[in-house]
Design brief:
Length: 246
């Protein structure tokens, strides 16, 4: 594996989107951080309520059915994650990557989980999608904490281990604004660096995460195009939400 693809793989696996199934998306009314939609009285329903529509509790099969199909000409990827012992400096930047204490608490009550990934050749881009469902309402805490941490985590270090050995990445994080989707959403660009033939190259991981009732829905893309926007990720998230309505 080249250093470029290794850095991209580490970013995908850690943010995982959950390649681990920890769809992991924060905090303010600022459009550059989390974006909660107006809450209806139903959003305060007891955690035992399985919910309805896009926010209902899902089985693995129902979560799988909501995932988008890979476009023609793409290559499927196996979604696996062996990363562990992940730490950041400052420590609160774990929340930006959505692998902090809120993710651990949600994982204990996860009841449905599905993921899919594919790669395009020109330009080289890896997409990954997950739908995660929990026995209780997700609530705003995870997204709020990620957004709140952004201010101190525009630049940080990420260390850990995976199947290829130890990794130590310098990471930049930039919030992004997206359309009002779901009850709450968060979008960000995570940037890491590689040295290829003596030159530094940036690897970008863009992600959009949406909270809806018992569920978290995420789409991300790993690439090297600084000018790439979030239009396609928004469209994929919207598509997954529409699939859950059917």
């Amino acid at each position: 594996m080249t250093r470029t693809t290794r850095a991209g793989a580490v970013l995908i696996a850690v943010l995982g989107l959950s390649l681990t199934g920890c769809v992991t998306p924060f905090g303010s009314d600022d459009a550059s951080t989390s974006q909660p939609a107006p809450r209806s009285p139903g959003s305060q329903s007891p955690t035992s309520d399985p919910g309805t529509g896009t926010g209902r509790v899902l089985t693995d099969a129902e979560a799988e059915a909501a995932l988008p199909a890979g476009p023609k000409g793409t290559t499927p990827r196996t979604m696996t994650n062996t990363s562990e012992d992940r730490t950041t400096d400052p420590p609160e930047c774990l929340d930006v990557l959505r692998i902090g204490s809120e993710e651990k608490a949600l994982r204990k009550v996860r009841v449905g989980n599905a993921g899919k990934s594919w790669t395009t050749k020109d330009p080289v881009t890896t997409f990954a999608f997950t739908v995660e469902s929990y026995s209780r309402l997700v609530g705003p805490a995870q997204l709020d904490r990620a957004g709140a941490a952004m201010g101190a985590c525009d630049a940080f270090s990420l260390t850990g281990r995976d199947a290829d050995g130890s990794f130590d990445l310098r990471v930049l994080a930039e919030p992004r604004a997206v359309s009002s989707i779901g009850e709450q959403n968060f979008a960000a660009r995570i940037i890491s660096f590689n040295s290829v033939n003596g030159k530094s190259q940036r690897v970008y991981l863009d992600y959009v995460v949406v909270r809806s009732g018992h569920n978290l829905i995420e789409a991300n893309a790993t690439h090297q195009d600084e000018d790439r926007d979030f239009t396609d990720l928004e469209a994929h998230v919207q598509q997954m939400l529409q699939s859950l309505e059917q």
